[in-house]
Specification:
This protein is mainly alpha-helical. It has helices at residues 21-30, 36-54, 58-69, 93-110, 117-129, 134-148, and strands at residues 73-80, 83-90. The radius of gyration is 18 Å and the shape is globular.
Length: 157
Amino acid sequence: MSRRNTAVKREVVADPIYNSTVVTKLVNQVMLDGKRGLAQRIVYSAMNKAGEKLGLEPMTALTNALENIKPVLETKARRVGGANFQVPMEIREDRRQTLAIRWIVEYSRKRTGERGMENKLAAEIVDACNLTGGAVKKKDDMHRQAEANKAFAHYRW
Protein backbone atom coordinates (compact mmCIF):
# COMPACT_ATOMS: atom_id res chain seq x y z
CA MET A 1 0.00 0.00 0.00
CA SER A 2 1.44 3.33 -1.02
CA ARG A 3 2.13 5.83 1.72
CA ARG A 4 2.16 8.80 -0.61
CA ASN A 5 -1.04 8.94 -2.62
CA THR A 6 -4.37 7.23 -2.47
CA ALA A 7 -5.32 5.11 -5.45
CA VAL A 8 -7.58 6.80 -7.98
CA LYS A 9 -11.01 5.18 -8.29
CA ARG A 10 -11.66 4.16 -11.88
CA GLU A 11 -15.16 4.44 -13.27
CA VAL A 12 -16.59 1.17 -14.52
CA VAL A 13 -18.42 1.35 -17.85
CA ALA A 14 -22.02 0.14 -17.74
CA ASP A 15 -22.70 -3.11 -19.60
CA PRO A 16 -24.48 -2.94 -22.98
CA ILE A 17 -27.53 -5.11 -22.20
CA TYR A 18 -28.71 -4.04 -18.72
CA ASN A 19 -26.92 -0.66 -18.67
CA SER A 20 -25.65 -1.45 -15.17
CA THR A 21 -22.21 -1.07 -13.62
CA VAL A 22 -23.03 -3.87 -11.15
CA VAL A 23 -23.32 -6.37 -14.01
CA THR A 24 -20.00 -5.14 -15.42
CA LYS A 25 -18.34 -5.66 -12.03
CA LEU A 26 -19.83 -9.17 -11.87
CA VAL A 27 -18.49 -9.91 -15.37
CA ASN A 28 -15.05 -8.62 -14.34
CA GLN A 29 -15.08 -10.87 -11.27
CA VAL A 30 -16.11 -13.95 -13.28
CA MET A 31 -13.59 -13.23 -16.05
CA LEU A 32 -10.42 -15.32 -16.14
CA ASP A 33 -7.39 -14.70 -18.39
CA GLY A 34 -9.00 -11.66 -20.03
CA LYS A 35 -11.78 -13.67 -21.69
CA ARG A 36 -14.48 -11.02 -21.40
CA GLY A 37 -16.78 -12.48 -24.07
CA LEU A 38 -16.95 -15.82 -22.30
CA ALA A 39 -17.51 -14.13 -18.92
CA GLN A 40 -20.35 -12.00 -20.36
CA ARG A 41 -22.00 -15.07 -21.86
CA ILE A 42 -21.78 -16.89 -18.50
CA VAL A 43 -23.19 -13.95 -16.50
CA TYR A 44 -26.04 -13.12 -18.90
CA SER A 45 -27.21 -16.73 -19.21
CA ALA A 46 -26.93 -17.20 -15.42
CA MET A 47 -29.02 -14.09 -14.82
CA ASN A 48 -31.65 -15.28 -17.30
CA LYS A 49 -31.81 -18.76 -15.71
CA ALA A 50 -32.06 -17.28 -12.21
CA GLY A 51 -34.79 -14.90 -13.36
CA GLU A 52 -36.78 -17.78 -14.87
CA LYS A 53 -36.46 -19.89 -11.71
CA LEU A 54 -37.56 -17.02 -9.48
CA GLY A 55 -40.17 -15.62 -11.84
CA LEU A 56 -38.51 -12.20 -11.79
CA GLU A 57 -36.67 -9.98 -14.22
CA PRO A 58 -32.98 -11.01 -14.40
CA MET A 59 -31.74 -7.64 -13.14
CA THR A 60 -34.22 -7.68 -10.24
CA ALA A 61 -33.10 -11.18 -9.28
CA LEU A 62 -29.44 -10.12 -9.24
CA THR A 63 -30.20 -6.95 -7.26
CA ASN A 64 -32.21 -8.89 -4.65
CA ALA A 65 -29.45 -11.48 -4.36
CA LEU A 66 -26.75 -8.85 -3.84
CA GLU A 67 -28.86 -6.98 -1.28
CA ASN A 68 -29.22 -10.22 0.71
CA ILE A 69 -25.46 -10.82 0.59
CA LYS A 70 -24.14 -7.32 1.35
CA PRO A 71 -22.58 -7.22 4.84
CA VAL A 72 -23.09 -4.23 7.13
CA LEU A 73 -20.30 -4.88 9.67
CA GLU A 74 -16.85 -6.40 9.47
CA THR A 75 -14.02 -6.83 11.97
CA LYS A 76 -10.58 -5.35 11.48
CA ALA A 77 -7.52 -6.22 13.52
CA ARG A 78 -6.30 -3.37 15.73
CA ARG A 79 -3.17 -3.60 17.84
CA VAL A 80 -3.53 -1.97 21.27
CA GLY A 81 -0.87 -2.33 23.93
CA GLY A 82 0.69 -5.47 22.48
CA ALA A 83 -2.61 -7.28 22.00
CA ASN A 84 -4.58 -7.67 18.80
CA PHE A 85 -8.31 -6.97 18.97
CA GLN A 86 -10.91 -7.68 16.33
CA VAL A 87 -12.73 -4.35 16.20
CA PRO A 88 -16.17 -4.29 14.52
CA MET A 89 -16.57 -1.50 11.96
CA GLU A 90 -19.28 -0.42 9.54
CA ILE A 91 -18.54 -0.98 5.86
CA ARG A 92 -18.73 1.67 3.13
CA GLU A 93 -21.32 1.04 0.40
CA ASP A 94 -18.81 0.42 -2.39
CA ARG A 95 -16.94 -2.17 -0.30
CA ARG A 96 -20.22 -3.85 0.64
CA GLN A 97 -21.04 -4.25 -3.04
CA THR A 98 -17.53 -5.48 -3.88
CA LEU A 99 -17.63 -8.10 -1.11
CA ALA A 100 -21.08 -9.30 -2.19
CA ILE A 101 -19.99 -9.73 -5.82
CA ARG A 102 -16.74 -11.42 -4.78
CA TRP A 103 -18.55 -13.87 -2.49
CA ILE A 104 -21.26 -14.77 -5.00
CA VAL A 105 -18.60 -15.68 -7.59
CA GLU A 106 -16.40 -17.46 -5.05
CA TYR A 107 -19.19 -19.67 -3.74
CA SER A 108 -20.47 -20.28 -7.28
CA ARG A 109 -17.08 -21.71 -8.22
CA LYS A 110 -17.07 -23.91 -5.09
CA ARG A 111 -20.52 -25.38 -5.79
CA THR A 112 -20.86 -29.05 -6.62
CA GLY A 113 -23.83 -30.75 -8.21
CA GLU A 114 -24.27 -28.38 -11.14
CA ARG A 115 -22.29 -28.53 -14.36
CA GLY A 116 -20.93 -25.36 -15.89
CA MET A 117 -20.26 -21.98 -14.35
CA GLU A 118 -23.49 -20.46 -15.65
CA ASN A 119 -25.59 -23.10 -13.85
CA LYS A 120 -23.54 -22.67 -10.67
CA LEU A 121 -23.84 -18.87 -10.77
CA ALA A 122 -27.58 -19.08 -11.46
CA ALA A 123 -28.06 -21.47 -8.53
CA GLU A 124 -26.08 -19.20 -6.22
CA ILE A 125 -28.18 -16.18 -7.27
CA VAL A 126 -31.38 -18.13 -6.61
CA ASP A 127 -30.06 -19.31 -3.23
CA ALA A 128 -29.08 -15.75 -2.30
CA CYS A 129 -32.58 -14.52 -3.16
CA ASN A 130 -33.99 -17.25 -0.91
CA LEU A 131 -31.51 -16.35 1.90
CA THR A 132 -29.63 -19.65 1.65
CA GLY A 133 -26.32 -20.64 0.08
CA GLY A 134 -22.65 -20.09 0.83
CA ALA A 135 -22.49 -16.33 0.26
CA VAL A 136 -25.37 -15.61 2.67
CA LYS A 137 -23.75 -17.92 5.24
CA LYS A 138 -20.48 -15.97 4.86
CA LYS A 139 -22.33 -12.70 5.54
CA ASP A 140 -24.03 -14.18 8.60
CA ASP A 141 -20.70 -15.48 9.92
CA MET A 142 -19.15 -12.04 9.46
CA HIS A 143 -22.03 -10.37 11.32
CA ARG A 144 -21.86 -12.97 14.08
CA GLN A 145 -18.13 -12.31 14.56
CA ALA A 146 -18.71 -8.55 14.66
CA GLU A 147 -21.48 -9.05 17.23
CA ALA A 148 -19.23 -11.25 19.36
CA ASN A 149 -16.50 -8.57 19.37
CA LYS A 150 -18.88 -5.70 20.09
CA ALA A 151 -17.10 -5.13 23.41
CA PHE A 152 -14.04 -3.83 21.50
CA ALA A 153 -15.99 -1.27 19.49
CA HIS A 154 -14.49 1.57 21.55
CA TYR A 155 -11.11 0.85 19.89
CA ARG A 156 -12.51 2.07 16.59
CA TRP A 157 -10.42 4.78 14.93
